[in-house]
Amino acid sequence: MTSRSVIRQQIRLTRQQLSSAEQQTAAKKLVSQITNLPQFNTSQHIALYLTNDGELDTSLLIQTLWQLHKTVYIPVLHPFTAGYLVFVRYEPTSPLQTNKFGIKQPLLACQNIIPVAELDLIFTPLVAFDSQGNRLGMGGGFYDRTLAQLPADYRSRFVGLAHSCQQVSALPIASWDIPLQTIVTPDKIWRFK
């Protein structure tokens, strides 16, 4: 089986090569897919991420959530516990800064932090996924460590977002990897048990 680092490199290159038109089309289809998720209508507090490195563009989805009066939260590197994330409320006027990985994130303000267990839906980025719901991230383990603290019955709230080209036949998995029950691509909603 191909190593995790090789898969990461190949899939990142593939998604970076998507044209602007392909990215825009994918972003529009994503909004349609997400608003058709059964758990979407009953969710108010929704975690997303700001797009980076050719990831499926979430900006149109974020705009749609704001229009529907949903509250959006963005992951921010935990200021005191290395390797973990905190989720911060994100609004159209939220000031942004670039973290140590070159990723935009809202400025950390304690009054805007939500406990992870209070999020209704958590949309996670991923580099690759397989037909068993395994997710390969960027390699830092931030989402895996942060979400591992939650009870198993909470995992139905984790939803991976990816371009269709990010699917691989099988991923080498590690003991700390948290499989997803749902992955959404612009063309399909994948459900796993």
TrEMBL record:
GO terms for molecular function: 5-formyltetrahydrofolate cyclo-ligase activity; ATP binding; metal ion binding. One of its GO terms (biological process) is tetrahydrofolate interconversion. Its EC number is 6.3.3.2. Belongs to the 5-formyltetrahydrofolate cyclo-ligase family. InterPro entries: FTHF_cligase, FTHF_cligase-like_sf, NagB/RpiA_transferase-like. Keywords: ATP-binding, Ligase, Magnesium, Metal-binding, Nucleotide-binding. This is 5-formyltetrahydrofolate cyclo-ligase. It comes from the Bacteria.
